[in-house]
TrEMBL record:
The lineage of its organism: Bacteria, Pseudomonadati, Pseudomonadota, Alphaproteobacteria, Sphingomonadales. The chain crosses the membrane at residues 18-39, 51-72, 84-107, 119-140, 211-233. This is Uncharacterized protein. The keyword Transmembrane applies. Keywords: Membrane, Transmembrane, Transmembrane helix. It comes from Novosphingobium aromaticivorans (strain ATCC 700278 / DSM 12444 / CCUG 56034 / CIP 105152 / NBRC 16084 / F199).
């Protein structure tokens, strides 16, 4: 009876379970990827700079917030969902700011993974979070249109899967070209899951799902292009030189 009442009051709740599961699945994937990376000895929490820890806390907070927000939507607690949404707007700026700062400091302190160039890493850590933030802001702006809102939010989550994927693929073997190709391919496959859901429930792919795929492609092309763009390469090398 409670489920039926919720579905009547909030028609979107009929397939909200899909988006809730997507949020939980992606959050668990990110935690697993970073967790196994640390357990394998590829990172040292005790020697990492404080801003790296702050960046990690901000990202974990974001993952938790997205999961909670989807759970609230599924339960019909829209009032609390909306209140927490404004908290999310503030948090996304923190995530973006710390992401860019951490990326820049990694270059300055020569902590960039050896299979990435400084220019690639600078482009990825800056434009990656900027496009992520733009997706979230667009989702909040479309909050009154649930179908757009939740797909854009899911698309933003898909964008930040990149660093987690990078910790699971054999980057030293794949190299500086195939590594980002494999990451973008994985992300597009996740978008494909949402597209298949769209076709199942709507008969066609939602425009917001198409935008999510476009965001992945644009970010990939932008980062790859800037990584070999001479003025940008000079900028990154200048940061590395101090």
């Amino acid at each position: 009876m409670a489920t039926a009442a919720t579905s009547t009051a909030y028609p979107y709740s009929r397939d909200q379970r899909f988006f809730t599961r997507m949020a939980i699945g992606m959050a668990l994937f990110v935690v697993f990827a970073f967790g196994q990376w640390a357990l394998r000895g590829f990172s040292s929490p005790t020697t990492a700079p404080v801003w790296v820890h702050l960046h990690g806390i901000a990202m974990l907070s974001w993952l938790a917030l997205v999961v909670v927000q989807n759970q609230l939507a599924a339960s019909g607690n829209i009032a609390l969902h909306r209140k927490l949404g404004w908290t999310g707007l503030g948090l996304v700026f923190v995530v973006a700011g710390l992401g860019m700062f951490t990326g820049r400091m990694a270059i300055e302190l020569h902590r960039v993974p050896p299979f990435f160039s400084n220019a690639y890493f600078l482009a990825l850590t800056h434009f990656g979070v900027l496009i992520f933030a733009a997706m979230v802001i667009a989702a909040i702006a479309m909050r009154r249109n649930t179908q757009w809102h939740r797909r854009l939010m899911t698309g933003a989550m898909i964008l930040i899967l990149e660093p987690a994927i990078g910790r699971l693929v054999p980057a030293p073997i794949l190299g500086p070209v195939l590594t980002p190709v494999s990451e973008a391919t994985f992300q597009l496959c996740v978008v494909g899951v949402m597209a298949m859901h769209d076709v199942k429930v709507r008969g066609t792919v939602h425009p917001a799902t198409r935008i999510s795929a476009l965001a992945v492609i644009v970010l990939f092309a932008l980062v790859m292009g800037l990584s070999v763009f001479p003025p940008f390469v000079s900028l990154a090398e200048g940061i590395a030189a101090g």
